Amino acid sequence: MNNVLPLCILCKEPIPTRTKPEHILLNALGGRKTVSKIICPNCNHLMGIGPDNDLAESTKYIRNMCNMTCGDGDPAPQIRGHRGPSDLNLNLNPGMQIKAASKNALEISFEDDGVTVKIIAFSEQEAERLADAAARKIAKWIGIRNGDDIAKMKAEILENRRSHYEPAPKIVGDIEFGKGEAVRSKAKACLVLLGHAMGNEHALSMKYDKIRSFVLDGKLSGYKPEDFVILDSRPLPEGIPEKYGTHPNLVCVAGKEHGPVCGYFRLYGSIGWQLKLSCEPTGYEGVTCLVSNPFNPISWDVLHNDHSPLSSRWVSKNLFAEEFDFGAVTTKLDEIVRYAGTVSKDLWLLNLVKQGLDEAGCKEGDVITEEQLAHLARFVSVPLVSLMTRKSVPKF
Ligand SMILES: [Zn+2]
């Protein structure tokens, strides 16, 4: 066979013929552009379970909050076991839709003069299920086997319930972008983009060995991390096409004649990492940029030179760590958080109305009757009052 297998730009081993494509920007971050034969399956796997996973994890809250889907269309992540008020377990469904469960949902105490049942449920279905469990437990305790008697007991438990609508607890999530080894994943994204733009052979040059070893094992052989990675809070340049959104993700490589090659990773338009890919000229001149809209992943492109939303000069500008302005990053992130609040409220309202229509027995396509309308109005009014007053409201 004459064909020479391409070499992996990370470990420099031959890449087997059958190799799964690799995302330049993580699928979790909405990345859709894939390349093949740039990284070997082994490196891909090691990056996936390490640095890539750290980067994906560090953006979990923001993706959940804004209901950002993955590049392949998978839903935004669910966050399980979120910390909430001490007696609550919270799961956050995409779009910050809270699913609460009490840690002590069912308590049954058997005393000489009777049985006390305490149920804390967050939906009618849950109350039914817990009442059923309680009735069965009591029946077993007192030796009842008859199904009708158990059903009666369950009905009795449910009869005494009091229903309230509780306002959703305030959610505090961590938005941290520097988690663990995430920066290695960003450096890898830049190297893979370079391999894509210039070919594996170019990316295999010894001049990229330092950043390569940093991507592989986090080691910088005698250098300090700040010599390689500088955080950037500059606003993005004007004129980035609207289709990429106000908070695009960007992966870039830029090289100047007689200058070093820079990598650049911008997350949600808010915070950037400038990475030194090589300290000396490598023959790469120009700029290549992958731009992607995290709110609409189908809107992405890989653009070169004059078409690139970030210029070579902007990407490789001399940055100084002390110029980093945390306030600027927070302001930019606040815009996303505010947007997320709207997304979350819209989704909540939509679900509430859907649930109300369902309860009223109205199916999609049906003409809604006056009676159903009245039912819907009753159903949505309590949660709405609770939302607006942030108080517990008894159901009627
Ligand atoms: Zn490899």
**Which kinds of small molecule does this entry bind, naming each only once?**
zinc ion
Distance between the termini: 79 Å
Report the biggest beta sheet as strand number plus sense, adding barrel if it closes. 6 strands, antiparallel
Name the assembly state: single chain
* Strand arrangement across the biggest beta sheet: 9-12-11-10-13-14
What is the number of E strands?
A: 15
The helix content is 25-40%
What is the gyration radius calculated from CA atoms?
A: 28 Å
Which of globular, elongated, flat, extended, rod-shaped describes the shape? elongated
Estimated share of beta-strand residues = 15-25%
What is the mean pLDDT?
88
- Please work out how many helical segments DSSP would assign: 12
Low-confidence parts lasting 5 or more residues at pLDDT below 50? Answer: none
Structural class: alpha+beta
SSE string, helix = H, strand = E? EEHHHEEEEEHHEHHHHEEEEEEHHHE
Describe the structure.
The longest helix has 34 residues, at 326-359. The strands form five sheets. Strands 9-12-11-10-13-14 form a six-stranded antiparallel β-sheet. It has a three-stranded antiparallel β-sheet with strand order 3-4-5. The model has no long low-confidence stretch (mean pLDDT 88). A hairpin with a 2-residue loop joins strand 6 (106-111) and strand 7. It is built from twelve helices and 15 strands. Helix 4 (124-142) crosses helix 5 (147-159). Among the domains are: 102-165, no CATH class; 178-324, no CATH class; 334-394. Helix content is 37%, strand content 19%. With 396 residues, the chain is α+β, with helices and mostly antiparallel strands. The radius of gyration is 28 Å and the shape is elongated. Bound molecules: zinc ion (ZN).
